[in-house]
Design goal:
This protein is α+β, with helices and mostly antiparallel strands. The protein has one domain. The chain has five helices and eight strands, in the order H-E-E-H-E-H-E-E-H-H-E-E-E. Helix 2 runs antiparallel to helix 5. The longest helix is centred in the N-terminal third of the chain and has 19 residues. The N and C termini lie far apart (about 80 Å).
């Protein structure tokens, strides 16, 4: 009986923390204020570095068609996408797909939008050195099938400006 009483008190304390605060347990985001502060810190880290030209490989995992789930090489210059192609085949992307690819700033906006919408699940992994989102997993509503999406960035490389003699 004593063990049961202790377990119930512990479960009650955990429930109270989940209800009253913003926390993360096993990668599950509960609440938004801590996540919003972390987004601000990481976005500021990225901005301080003034990185405007880079390339990366981007993949979206979702129920949204092969055009979006195939890994894509994206080159960003002066903050905008200058080139994009499928990374495994070098095949060109349809314009309607290219128009929906994110830059790092757009990835931050995806996290911000998810916080505004109070999604049921938001898991973000930021790059420890540069601060950009390396992985964003969202389940908009647990009760809705096939609305989950995961954005994955790999191999981000900073492009230095050309050296002029």
């Amino acid at each position: 009986m004593r063990v049961l009483h202790r377990a119930l008190r512990c479960a009650g304390a955990i429930a109270l923390v989940l209800v009253l605060g913003s926390c993360e347990i096993f990668g599950l985001a509960i609440g938004g204020s801590g996540r919003r502060a972390e987004l601000g810190r990481q976005r500021a880290k990225w901005a301080r570095q003034q990185i405007t030209s880079y390339n990366l490989v981007y993949r979206r995992d979702c129920f949204c068609g092969i055009e979006f789930v195939t890994p894509t090489y994206i080159e960003v210059r002066a903050g905008g996408i200058s080139t994009a192609r499928y990374s495994e085949s070098d095949a060109p992307l349809p314009l309607w797909v290219q128009d929906r690819l994110p830059t790092v700033e757009a990835l931050f906006d995806i996290v911000d939008n998810a916080l505004d919408r109070e999604v049921d699940l938001l898991e973000v992994v930021y790059d420890p050195a540069l601060g950009y989102p390396r992985r964003i997993a969202i389940d908009y509503r647990f009760s809705t099938a096939d609305d989950e999406v995961t954005h994955v960035v790999s191999g981000l490389e900073i492009m230095l400006p050309p050296i002029v003699p």
